[in-house]
């Protein structure tokens, strides 16, 4: 299996850590190679070159039955498509596991004819292409008709205990990359609209990104006292923030199937999210969360206001969200699906 360093930041690293912690690596004899590490350009180049070298050695010497690659867009695709080429040349079966929220943009408007051909060839030459949702599977089947596409949603562990005693009134949590594509500027605008009537309102934006710009924007809006920007949060800090939050909000412009949202659902939080990527396949409006169109500040403001004002609604949506994770996005189900693919390809 090849992907970003499991101790890194972001959704793909979280996916890989869930699989490792769940025991997939031991049960299926998975050797993991990191093709990307956070850090300087030199660190990233060194990680990529090491991945090419170790992948080539492993494919020639150990002859793995399957090479499973976790891939996003742009630079990630460039690295992974070449690693898949090495694996195919060595006679290995391959899995292309797509995570990129903007892969449709990358594979379409951003790519010229030659690159689109290479993307399509990479997908169609892979033994299996994994999509995170039915909507992403439909896109991939349309883009690369000869590819074999299967759906394996992201998964998260279900916390054993559920305790709302630590929730703080008016506390909203965002987890993810703090930039315009995740809708954080619209979230600040919504908080600015709500703050005059809700003096206890507090937004926590957990993640790296445009933190200085967001601080300036909060000051400009007069809500800096209502906003915290702690930066990257490790697993323990995320769990602590989830326990304190009344509402989880992810107003993204593009997504695959966000791990942070699934973690919030598993923690029985009322979720406000957008109708992008695989999100509408996990959240049904009014049943286990609230959905809005991306970029719609009035709708975002109204959804947050409704949840903050109605404890019974928050609890109902949160309980249903947790039940959705248990029923459809459990770690055991995801690992069973991957194990079945490995056994099928190892025949």
From TrEMBL:
<dbReference type="Pfam" id="PF13579">
    <property type="entry name" value="Glyco_trans_4_4"/>
</dbReference>
<feature type="domain" description="Glycosyltransferase subfamily 4-like N-terminal">
    <location>
        <begin position="37"/>
        <end position="154"/>
    </location>
</feature>
<dbReference type="InterPro" id="IPR001296">
    <property type="entry name" value="Glyco_trans_1"/>
</dbReference>
<feature type="domain" description="Glycosyl transferase family 1">
    <location>
        <begin position="169"/>
        <end position="323"/>
    </location>
</feature>
<dbReference type="GO" id="GO:0016757">
    <property type="term" value="F:glycosyltransferase activity"/>
</dbReference>
<dbReference type="InterPro" id="IPR028098">
    <property type="entry name" value="Glyco_trans_4-like_N"/>
</dbReference>
<comment type="similarity">
    <text>Belongs to the glycosyltransferase group 1 family. Glycosyltransferase 4 subfamily.</text>
</comment>
<protein>
    <recommendedName>
        <fullName>Glycosyl transferase family 1</fullName>
    </recommendedName>
</protein>
<keyword id="KW-0808">Transferase</keyword>
<keyword id="KW-0328">Glycosyltransferase</keyword>
<dbReference type="Pfam" id="PF00534">
    <property type="entry name" value="Glycos_transf_1"/>
</dbReference>
